[in-house]
Write a structure and sequence with these properties.
Helix content: over 70%
Shape: globular
Structural class: mainly alpha
Largest sheet: none
Strand content: under 5%
Radius of gyration: 17 Å
Length: about 160
Amino acid sequence: FLLTLGRKPVFAQVAALLVSQSLVVALAAWYLLPVPAWSATALAVVVVAICGEALFHRRARSWRVPLVVAGGLFSGLVLAGSAPFAATFSASGTGRGEVLAFLLGSEGALVLVALVTAAVLLPLSRFAWYRRVVVEPVAVVVIGAAIFSSVEKYL
């Protein structure tokens, strides 16, 4: 969201993330999709790619939305592989109501974060220093965190 703060690009990215993540979470909650052990590493690779785009390109490229979809898929897998998710959906009779309530809460929180982020960054993006002071440092920090989260299990 750092590169494109226009309504349509942000809406497309948030929608792509929400739909892909919700699909994976619902399938995992109903035990229709196994969670691979490498999903966190794959999510880190996608995050590095998206933040790398923010570092090296001034505008979002055509591959941004497919990358966000991949990020949504992998973040859904990471969420579905977490201990709180397993505790919530450990009963074999998980119904649609429980899954929909979980999705409404988690995706609602994601939308709220996106709205607050856009509300803060949109006024700042009009300044000439925005890219140098906000986009580049945040992208570097997120890349570092993604790489660290992938390699920390080997340390």
